[in-house]
Specification:
By secondary structure, the chain is mainly beta. β7 and β8 form a beta hairpin. The longest helix is centred in the last third of the chain and has 11 residues. The chain has a single domain, classed as Protein of unknown function DUF4909 (Lipocalin). 7% of the residues lie in helices and 38% in strands. The chain has one helix and nine strands, in the order ββββββββαβ. It starts with 26 loop residues before the first strand and ends with a strand.
């Protein structure tokens, strides 16, 4: 698996994937950036956590050309998210928020397999105490700290549950 090194063609694993969470990632009042990277077709489709065939099913669909709509369908019901990707240095990050327009964004570093059969989400640690009111300040903070060993929680790998539509 490798992370993207150039702009995404059609955008995100945003897999709004808070769903992909085993823990709660850092929640920010602003995204890392406004949506500007095209949706990556490799993220479109249905996904499950790699280690569990009983995990919720996450369906990722384009929402326009720059965002994703993610539907989590599990035993406790369905939840909808919106997401978009942001490039920070040479790493892609997923900005995920509740589709209901919730005020907070969950942030994940995302590595997408080159063949599109899997991706891994690395939640930004919830132990960050700083708050940000501007995306540019949050971006600077992430750029300065993403190399620290404690900046991310335990990663979760997702595998394709069915072929892309």
């Amino acid at each position: 698996m490798i992370g993207f090194k150039k702009p995404l063609p059609a955008a995100l694993l945003g897999l709004g994937l808070c769903f992909l969470l085993t823990g709660c990632p850092y929640r920010a009042a602003v995204p890392l950036s406004a949506p500007s990277n095209p949706v990556d077709p490799r993220l479109v489709g249905s996904w499950r956590e790699d280690s569990s065939s009983s995990s919720p099913l996450y369906t990722v669909q384009p929402e326009g050309t720059l965002e994703y709509r993610i539907l989590s369908d599990g035993d406790t019901g369905s939840t909808s998210f919106r997401a978009h990707l942001t490039l920070v240095g040479d790493q892609w990050f997923l900005n995920l928020r509740d589709s209901g327009g919730g005020p907070f964004y969950s942030l994940f570093r995302i590595d997408i397999a080159i063949d599109g059969t899997s991706f891994t989400l690395y939640p930004v640690t919830e132990n960050i105490t700083e708050t940000f009111s501007k995306s540019s300040d949050l971006m600077t903070f992430v750029q300065q700290n993403q190399g620290l060993s404690f900046f991310f929680e335990k990663p979760t790998r997702y595998v394709r549950a069915s072929a892309s539509p």
